[in-house]
Design goal:
The chain is of the alpha/beta class. The chain has 11 helices and 11 strands. Helix 2 links the parallel strand 1 and strand 2. The termini are far apart.
């Protein structure tokens, strides 16, 4: 009997050591989010963890890079893109739980300069001469072929008739935050970033805002991935909550989703 009891005790210890860490790991989520969301989402994730006990780890980069990482098998539970096209790409690759998709946020693009720049209050409209404004300097934005902010910037400049002259002056960055840093550090006199990015960096100032009708609507879709953990559904609900709305609007985003709580 003592031997049997000892076996049960040993089995109990083994089961406990085997299952406790796995259970702990289950109480975590990984969010892949557009670089422009970092400050707002970091704050929101801290609030979610305090509320739910679920640890949230976020990876921030250009939406294009994140979509490709998910396609290659990166273990993401949630994807938040800065444009619809990269979310559509992920849906097409069967990497997204399409039923969970929601248009979460809106934004705008602005022209920025270093905080000490003599440039100020530029009117951006048809025939806007961005090339002349840049002079001998560079204009920083995301890669116009893949990074959402760069794609929005190019679309706006094409519509305003400014792209052809300005194109040679562009410095293409890997993300909107990389472009923001170039201007903040004085490595580029001008940049095109989201209004929300300009808001969080004291090293830059907004000198003009691109008309909303000069580029496709800036929409941030969010969705759970096809391989998401079960906790992802609760996190998605939190993203659409009034608490989320308060945080996102504080950082300058437009909240597009109808708050669920």
């Amino acid at each position: 009997m003592k031997r049997i009891a000892g076996l049960f005790a040993a089995v109990s210890i083994l089961l406990g050591s085997s299952f406790t860490p796995v259970h702990a790991q289950d109480k975590s989520l990984t969010v892949f989010a557009a670089a422009s969301m970092k400050n707002a989402l970091d704050e929101l994730n801290a609030a979610y963890t305090a509320k739910s006990g679920v640890k949230v780890t976020s990876s921030y980069a250009a939406s294009s890079a994140l979509a490709k990482q998910i396609e290659q098998g990166a273990p993401a539970d949630i994807f938040i893109s800065a444009d619809q096209e990269w979310m559509d790409y992920s849906v097409g690759k069967k990497d997204i739980n399409e039923a969970s998709r929601v248009s979460l946020l809106g934004n705008s693009i602005v022209l920025i300069a270093g905080k000490d720049s003599k440039l100020a209050n530029v009117t951006i409209g048809q025939g806007f001469d961005l090339a002349k404004l840049a002079g001998d300097g560079k204009i920083a934005t995301g890669d116009v072929k893949s990074v959402p902010v760069g794609k929005y910037a190019k679309a706006a400049l094409e519509k305003l008739g400014s792209w052809t002259a300005a194109e040679p002056k562009f410095a293409m960055a890997e993300s909107v935050r990389a472009a923001l840093t170039l201007v903040s550090r004085g490595e580029a006199p001008l940049g095109i970033v989201y209004a929300t990015d300009a808001k969080i960096d004291p090293g830059v100032k907004v000198i003009g805002t691109f008309p909303a009708d000069s580029h496709p609507a800036i929409v941030y879709p969010a969705a759970a991935t096809a391989k998401a953990k079960s906790e992802a559904a609760d996190y998605m609900a939190f993203l659409k909550s009034s608490a989320s709305k308060t945080v996102m609007e504080k950082y300058g985003f437009t909240f597009l989703a109808k708050p669920t709580s």
